[in-house]
Amino acid sequence: MGGDSAPSTVPPLTAPGHGNGLLDVFRSRYLLNLLVQKELKVRYRGSVLGILWSYVKPGMQFVVFYIALGVFLGLEQSPTNRSGMPNYAIYLFSGIALINFFTEALGNAARSVVGNSGLIQKIYLPRQLFPVASVWVSAVHFLPQVVILAFVCLLNGWHPTISQVAVAVAAFIMVALLATGLGLFFGAVNVYFRDAENFVDMLLLVATWASPVLYSWEMVHNKLGPAWFAVYQVNPLSVAVEAFHLAFWYPTTAETVAMVPNLLSVWAPVGMAISLLVLFLGQMVFRRLEGRFAQEL
């Protein structure tokens, strides 16, 4: 009839606890910023050194590995040891900085959902915010280390170019994507099976040694041969670390040092593709499991 109003449109029902994944994280940038600030404040509450503790660990790692490998095992090139690596200290620190970003990001992201169980049980907000915030906090710790690395490289004759900076940024993005994808996966699985934390700890223990952080890629190539070395290079961490070496360490070497064959033309695109695939799979698993987070926690 003419006096009747048009029927109201009823929005479709959606399952509770499900969102739009990482798109919700982008839309909730303000909440992400708050979570990052909260995590930084809670982590260093009551600490004398505060955020400086994030540099004590890589600093101690660098000193221990440099003395053990560079000095005692002769990986540092010197007038009496021409078979060592030139500027091994820069080679070592550039790898440690990047791999520590990965280990911190993944370790914290895998525990982030369980660690924020009280907040998850009280209100609904995009749950992907917690692993992503953990990666951002790790990036906050990582970037000043890169500044120190760049300063030391400048003192050793580094003249940065746009291509070198682009390679370094691409390596960082590759590791960040990988850490986020694995963090989403293990963060969700950890809600149901707390053994996931122990598995992540073992994975992080292997990460430093499974990439050319402490040794050169030529050692791996000479021991394994071309076929197995190709398998070794499928690891995005290996590609990212070597790309970091290409950006920072390689320009400081007075001698010509061989780099990984096809690093930028083949392995870098492969590593980026694998990191994106891990991110997609991690996000898919997270979205499938997040519906019962509040009940399981």
TrEMBL record:
PROSITE patterns: ABC_TM2. Belongs to the ABC-2 integral membrane protein family. Signal peptide: none annotated. Its main location: membrane. GO terms for cellular component: plasma membrane. The keyword Cell inner membrane applies. Keywords: Cell inner membrane, Cell membrane, Membrane, Transmembrane, Transmembrane helix, Transport. This is Transport permease protein. The lineage of its organism: Bacteria, Bacillati, Actinomycetota, Actinomycetes, Micrococcales.
